[in-house]
Amino acid sequence: MARSKLVKANEKIAEKVVSGYKKIEEGVVGGYKKIETGAVNGFTKISDSFVDEFLTKDGETVEEAKARLEAERKERETARAEKKGLL
């Protein structure tokens, strides 16, 4: 009888500890995700603004300019690799 009371008490304690840990974990992870999302959104906003201001050609959208720049970067890397004999 006494042993079963101890087992039940231990189970209740374990449940409370696990529940508390999960709440803390969810709070920390949730906070991190909010900070991460804010940082990524801020960077994207600044990046888009820079591309729009300095790198777009007439009538070109930011997305089109980014795609063009990425294609140009890949061409340069391919040319550099071919020059070094890697491809």
Give the tags.
single chain; mainly alpha; elongated
Model description:
The chain contains 2 helices and no strands. The chain has helices at residues 2-55, 62-83. The chain is elongated. The N and C termini lie far apart (77 Å). The model has no long low-confidence stretch (mean pLDDT 94).
Distance between the termini: 77 Å
Portion in beta strands: under 5%
**What are the segments in which pLDDT stays under 50 over at least 5 consecutive residues?**
none
The topology string of helices and strands comes to HH
Mean pLDDT: 94
Q: How does the major sheet shape up?
A: none
Describe the SSE topology:
Elements: H1 2-55, H2 62-83
Brief synopsis:
The chain has two helices and no strands. It has helices at 2-55, 62-83.
